[in-house]
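Quiz preparation item.
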């Protein structure tokens, strides 16, 4: 977890995801569908904003090892990012947030196995998705 203030988000909680990764884009689509209150804004890791954030955090800016979930100015990585996002959704989704209680010695290797193999297992899109006008409103400036 890291604290990060960004003018682009203007205090809004947001998620930065790999727009070429089918699994990561699936996470994005899940969040859009279930976040009825539109708590989260979005940005792709490939966008100018995503590139600045990953660089600022010392994360790879080409082979993205994690999505970022930022709530209340705090950046969550890896499995903690997923848990934080699930905890913020209405309904039973909070149950999936219990993975945050796993010891780091278990959850980090588990996350890295999934992250390293996500393209092989789930595939990769040759380009980032292009959101329609309605969905564009959910993206941060410079977020796609």
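Solution:
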């Amino acid at each position: 977890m890291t604290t990060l203030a960004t003018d682009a988000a203007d205090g809004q909680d947001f998620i930065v995801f790999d727009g070429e990764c089918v699994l990561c884009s699936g996470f994005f689509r899940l969040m859009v569908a279930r976040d009825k209150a539109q708590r989260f804004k979005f940005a792709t890791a490939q966008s100018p904003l995503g590139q600045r954030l990953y660089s600022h955090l010392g994360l790879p800016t080409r082979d993205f090892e994690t999505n970022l979930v930022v709530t209340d100015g705090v950046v969550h990585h890896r499995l903690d990012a997923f848990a934080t996002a699930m905890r913020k959704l209405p309904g039973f989704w909070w149950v999936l947030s219990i993975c945050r209680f796993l010891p780091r010695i278990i959850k980090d290797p588990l996350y890295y196995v999934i992250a390293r193999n996500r393209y092989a297992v789930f595939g990769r899109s040759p380009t980032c998705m292009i959101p329609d006008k309605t969905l564009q409103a959910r993206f941060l400036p410079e977020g796609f």
